[in-house]
Amino acid sequence: MAPQTPRSAALLVSPVRRRIVDTLEALPLFSDDPTPNRSTGLTAAEVGERLGLHVTSARFHLEQLAGAGVVAATFHRHGTGRPQKRYAVLPDRATAASPPDDAYRMLAELLTEALAPREGGALSPEDAGERWAHEHVRRLGCVEEELPRAQTPGQWLAKVGRVLDLMESWGYEPSVRTTDHGRTAEVALARCPFLSLAQSHTEVVCAAHRGLLRGALDVFGEPDADVELEPFALPGICLARLTSPAVLSSESPVPGKESVRV
Question: Which 3 state secondary structure label does DSSP give 28?
């Protein structure tokens, strides 16, 4: 969580307000409409229902938090009725984090690698990230043997899970949902350990992270996977789309039978 101002710190001394902020921060990054998520937030009535507070009391505390800049209050219109006032944790509070030493070391190493003179010219940040992943992911103990390419949605999601484990070790708070019958995994990357650096140098930092994702999938046996990274698709949150190049079957693969390629 971002540093607190004296006023916000004083407000959060209240156990009720602390519970309200914790509830808003605990909302999922993704949800199907009309389920609330971290971006849409909750109404005062929804907060009151979840915490056992009268709606008037919930609204009072929420307005105090909004006035101190702890949460944001916005109006959302659904249908023809009156717009709803909803409260959500501000992005810099919900996503800011202190980078772990290992994460800083990783970024420093791969950017140094990108700037190092070499035959054929320096590497791009994305190429440096991919190269770093190739050299270090095995050393981290994430994979001990060559992995076959995924042939079912379950196998593909298991590969994506390995990538999420890596992102967590670097300080992210990833969450995933699948589309296209499990062929594409959309990974929301919250609590970026390099948020302030990514905001000022988006092309460099996000390109390096795209290379890390690509290189990690290569090590996990998916060299042809399509990797997209959309910086700040949601406030303070980047969205990675990892797509298997294979036509995945829900049936278990037959031993010795190759998967169909697109």
Answer: coil
221: tokens are 């046996």
Report whether 153 contacts 6 (CB < 8 A). no
Ranges assigned E (strand) in the chain: 42-43, 71-76, 84-89, 173-179, 184-190, 226-234, 237-243
Task: Match 């810099």 to its residue by tokens.
Answer: 92
Which residues sit opposite 75 in a β-bridge?
85
Sheet holding 71-76, edge to edge: 42-43, 84-89, 71-76
Task: Tally the residues of the chain.
Answer: 262
Rounded Cα distance, 11 and 9, in Å: 5
pLDDT tens-place string over residues 141-177: 556 567 889 888 888 988 898 888 888 877 787 888 8
Query: At residue 49, what is the residue type?
Result: E
Tell me which DSSP letter residue 220 carries: T
Report whether 245 contacts 224 (CB < 8 A). Answer: yes
pTM for the full predicted model: 0.60
Q: What is the spatial distance between Cα 96 and Cα 85, in angstroms, rounded to a whole number?
A: 25
Question: What domains lie within the chain, and their CATH numbers?
Answer: 6-93 (1.10.10.10), 101-243 (3.30.1380.20)
DSSP 39: T
Specify the amino acid at residue 220: F
Q: How far apart are the first and last CA of the chain?
A: 43
Count of CB atoms within 10 A of residue 232's CB? 17
